[in-house]
Amino acid sequence: MLKLGLIVCAHGNARAVLRLCKQYSLQHADAIALCGDLGDDFSEINAVLKATAGAKAKIIAFPGSHEPEKDFYRALRKNKRVIDGTKQRRIALQGYDIVLLPGSTVNTGSAGFRIFDGKRVPKAYAARFRTFSIAQLGRFIRNAQKTIVLCHDPPKCSGTSAIDVAYSGVVTKGFILHPKDAIVFGQKFKKHLDNPLALITPKGEIIPEPFASKLAKRGYPVSVKHRNVGNIALKQFLKSKKIPFFACGHIHEAGHRAVSAAGKSLKQGAWNPSVWYNAAPAVKGNGGILIIDGKNATYKNVKVKS
User: Fold this and answer.
1) Are residues 143 and 195 in the same domain?
2) What does the alpha-carbon distance between residue 19 and residue 51 come to, in Å, rounded to a whole number?
3) Which residues contact 77 (CB under 8 A, 6 or more apart)?
4) Ranges of residues in the chain whose predicted pLDDT is under 70
5) How far apart are CA 33 and CA 289, in angstroms?
6) Contact criterion met (CB below 8 Å) for 31 and 52
7) Residue 113: beta bridge partners?
8) pLDDT at 201
9) In this structure, are residues 21 and 54 in contact, taking their beta carbons and an 8 Å threshold?
């Protein structure tokens, strides 16, 4: 049996991470995985990693849609027991392989890590991000039935109870964000205003809430919708490789939900041959444990004070 504690979207909330780790220790978790959005800068990322120091389980961490590259690696150097998921992409544990896909397809202005679909890195990404390919993830798969894939982003699903349902904005016409409107993204975003790329938003870009509604109110071409926003290429990969076990976060409002590989909603505690689970958001005290025993798995939602 493998028990995997999950922490996703902590966004600098070290207190919640500490409390989640204590709960995972009580549940005898074999490993704890921090699946992206640890924080927006070194101080937040470092605080979150330090909060895991007392856990007896293995600690794994990789970036999502917020972490600046230099700050992420600096924090890892300060917390040396943490396994760097951008470099060690497959971790064998309890007879299973945990395979990691760092980064995100939706990045903030500070983000330094990007997921892309193909085998060749697009020029626009190569100049700005450290990149990770979905198409190349297959080389880390040894036995699909004994593999758990972890990613910050969810795969594309369907239905209103899926793990990728979000109230989010779709950019209907490309625009350049006016510096005075950068406050929509919070005070921390201001330090990225010297990077022109951070202000350019192309048509079709997905903007999460509450930022999307705020931009729409200021007159930007953003249409707010209730929709499935997962990654199509990631779903195709999981399906083609017949990966039964998967965990993610990123979409806060879809947290504490799981579906089967076929898209059926799953109740916590119920065993199933496939479980795709969203454990977010840790910033609000949400977490979860993915439990795998033989060819079946289940999940347990965990909630602590944030």
Assistant:
1) no
2) 9
3) none
4) 187-194, 196-197
5) 10
6) no
7) 130
8) 85
9) yes
Q: What pairs with residue 33 in β-bridges?
A: 6, 60
> 179-215 b/e with 16+ CB inside 10 Å = b?
eeebebbeebbeebeeeeebbebeeeebbbeebbbbb
Residue 53 · residue 81 · CB < 8 Å: yes
What's the burial of 120, exposed, middle or buried (CB within 10 Å: 0-12/13-18/19+)? exposed
What pLDDT, on a 0 to 100 scale, did the predictor assign at position 188? 66
By the 8 A CB rule, do 137 and 87 touch? Answer: no
Task: Determine the structural domain holding residue 203 and report its residue range.
Answer: 166-226
Residues 236, 208 share a domain: no
Per the CB < 8 A criterion, the answer to whether 48 and 72 are in contact is: no
Burial of residue 178, with CB atoms counted within 10 A of its CB: 0-12 exposed, 13-18 middle, 19 or more buried: exposed
The residue with tokens 């922490």 is 7
Pick the last residue of a domain from 207, 226, 245.
226
27-64 pLDDT tens trace: 999 999 999 999 999 999 999 999 999 999 999 999 99
Ramachandran region of residue 167, left (φ > 0), alpha (ψ -120 to 50) or beta?
beta
